[in-house]
Amino acid sequence: MERGQTEALESTVREFLAQMRRCTDVNIDLLAKGLTDRYVVPLASLLHKNQTLTSLQLGYNRVGDEGACALAEALAHNHTLTYLDLYQNEIGPRGARALAAALSHNSTLEYLDLRHNPMEAEAVRTLVVALQANPTIKCVHLPQVLSFEEVRSFVNRYPAGRFIFSDD
C-alpha cells in the first residue's frame, strides 16, 4: 500500500473509531476495507463496551490472529452482537482457539463465518467442540480442512445447517 493510501486508510479508521464511540447503529459493514490487526484491535475494544451493535462484517480484510484474539476478548463480554463475518481474512490457529474459548462464554452470537482463513484441522476441531456447547449459535461457516468422515460425523450430530464446512 502506498503512503497516500495508508494515510487515507488511517484517517478513515480514526474517523470510524470516533463514530463507533457514539455508535447507536445496529449494523456495521467494513467489508474489503484493507483492515489489519492494527485497526481491528481498537475496534474490538469498543465492541467490548458497545451495547447496540448486532452485526459486524469484517470479511475480505487482513485480520490475523492478533485481531481475532482481540475480537474474542470482546465477544466473551459482549451481549448484543449476533452476526460476525470474518470471511477471507488471515486468522490462523491461535486466533481460532481464542474465538473458540470466547464462544464457550458468549450467549448472543448466532452467525459466524470463518471460511477462507488459514486454519489448521486441529483449530477447526477446537471451534466445533466449543460450538457444540453453545446453544445460541445457529449457523457457523468453517474452512473445509477436515476429512469427509469428520465433517459427516459433525453434521450428523447437529441440526441441519448449523455447521457448514466449505471453501465457497
How would you portray this structure in words?
This protein has one domain (3-165): Ribonuclease Inhibitor (Leucine-rich repeat, LRR (right-handed beta-alpha superhelix), Alpha-Beta Horseshoe). The protein contains six helices and six strands; from the N terminus they run αβαβαβαβαβαβ. It has helices at 3-21, 37-49, 65-75, 93-103, 121-132, 148-157; strands at residues 27-29, 55-57, 83-85, 111-113, 139-142, 163-165. Strands 1-2-3-4-5-6 form a six-stranded parallel sheet. α3 packs parallel to α4 (93-103). The radius of gyration is 16 Å and the shape is globular. The model has no long low-confidence stretch (mean pLDDT 86).
